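dumping these here so i dont lose them again. two proteins, back to back, each one seq then structure tokens. dont judge the mess
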Amino acid sequence: MNNKKIIFTNCGGNNAGDKYSLPSLFYDFKNYRKEYTNKIWDTIDNISNHQYQNCIIIFGGGGIIDLNEDRSKQFKTLENNDTNIYFHWGSGENLTDNALGWVKDTFSNFVFVGRRDYYESYPPNQRYVPCVSCKLPQLKLNYNIKRTIGIVQHMWLHPINHLDYPSINMDLFKYSIDDIIRFIGESEVIITSSYHATYWALLLGKKVIISKSWSTKFDYLKYKPTILTDNLDEDILKTNPAPQDYLDESIYINDNFYSEIMNYIK
């Protein structure tokens, strides 16, 4: 057993998107010892209090990059020394109010910062790494279409109550990941308020319509959904699915990112 410990930290809870954006669900990380936290700022506090030493710490995925002053400062204050090694994997911007703008040295103490946000260019230690949940095996299955329009509700935010179509919720207390992915796969068009429902639907080649763009996280998907208007028929007509190779591309990028991290920490 390797003496090094990897701390995985992302958003906890039973939101399907948060639950399945954890890299350790899809990669074995050899014989490194593994520990998990689901509160980002508890992890940062433990680093500051020297409870985590000689560790590899992987933040992500999920929308845990809020470019507000407090969060930027906390990521920036992580110690840059030979004790801990820091990575982001598939983490994303998630602003729900006015942005301060990109603070480019926020992650200067990180080795690699894999961003699920798709930009034309990045600071030197950052690159595009879509959410690792693309590795879900259910996304590789074939589904028979059973409905034209399906609604995927966020676990609790921005419910879509004004449209009368079959629906499912990202709440894993109510539905399994099999249920959620199958529902998306069996629909031609997905209307949703969830980032990961959007992402998975795009990976499955669906037309995707966002009921409300309530966070900047929807702005930086590589392939853009349509924003819902009062004319749903027109929205559907102008919506394009992602290219057929989007799933394979996303898996390939994550596989390479895993290899890079493992080669670095050897």
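---- next one ----
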Amino acid sequence: MLPGILPEESETDRYSISFMSRLPQNKKIVFVNQSAGYLTIDIINQFSDAGYKCDLITGLLVTRNRSISKSVKVRRIIKYNNTNHIRRIFTWGWASFQIFIIILFKYRNSHIFFFTNPPLAPLTSLILPNSYSIVVFDVYPEAISELGFLPKNSFIIKLWKNANTMVYRQAEDVFTITQGMKDLISLYPMQNPAKIVNLWADNDFLHYIPKENNPFIKKYDLTGKFVVLYSGKIGFTSDVEILCDVAEAVNDDNVRFVIIGEGSRKKSIEQRINSSGLKDSFTILPLQEVNMLPYTLSSADLGVVILSKAASQLSIPSKTFSLLAIGVPILGITGDESDLNVLINQYRVGRCYNNENVDGIVKFIRTLVNNRSMYNEFRNNALLTSELFTRKNAENFVNNHD
């Protein structure tokens, strides 16, 4: 088993969702997530299938092959916008206000299931009368201070942490996704110990598509290339610029770096590529349609997952598990003590380096290009590991107490 990521079976049993045995099935559960995707859908559907009445408050609902249960009413709030600091803060704040008003007037007697997006939403529980639980996908305000947006000793950070003391103490249950994140939030007092529920990939939706049958590869002239793919947010927790340093050092016409996504750092990366003669080494694309995800991920010979050193113990990207489902070896770029590093090395699904070790990253890429045996070992390990992180993990949010 993977220490710090995958709990032992006895721990999972011990951490079964205790509030479900206390929550009457006729009491509605309202899920709050500003950006809801397959993880949120799977969790809600598990509750709905177990007989609970569920609603969702969200700004964005991204559906893949599985839709949210038809019995679930979806109430809309403002979408999350992370293109710059001002829009990020505004959409967080306005969404939290909308969430407060909706719960106050529509769901005063419901149990609230807060996700940490927007991060201010759980703070509304200090005023609202509802019982509630929290799912911590990102640790706040620690993420804000660790990334240097505000000093750790600033008034806002101190005030937020003091508020968290009351929020976590009053929560019926708190869930998170890695041991490192559990260690951080366990500094706050809680009614019950925080519980780890592992993330999962949408294995029914994600499957490998051979390169010769992949229209994405043909469309962007990737045939015969060793594709190093970064797909996701290009924001402050992802030092995507390091791929420019790597590409300069690799200097191989047969290696193509593909970046797919949007975010505050994208323009600066494009400017550097255009000014440093790297245009032939990169393909930079906007976010693709959801139904293209199996094709984009299958184009990769190596999938890149990046977390800045400051954020390495504050989250773990869900794209990690999507790459495993496709069978893509992973290049992790993050802090040495991160949960991502633990996962990659424990299961031998790739290699992990800190963002100062460009030489190590370059050597790893060159080795994979020339050593098909090593590549196939990482690929097979990825597929085997993905079987541990499936939709079945969502069942851990529901206690089979009938």
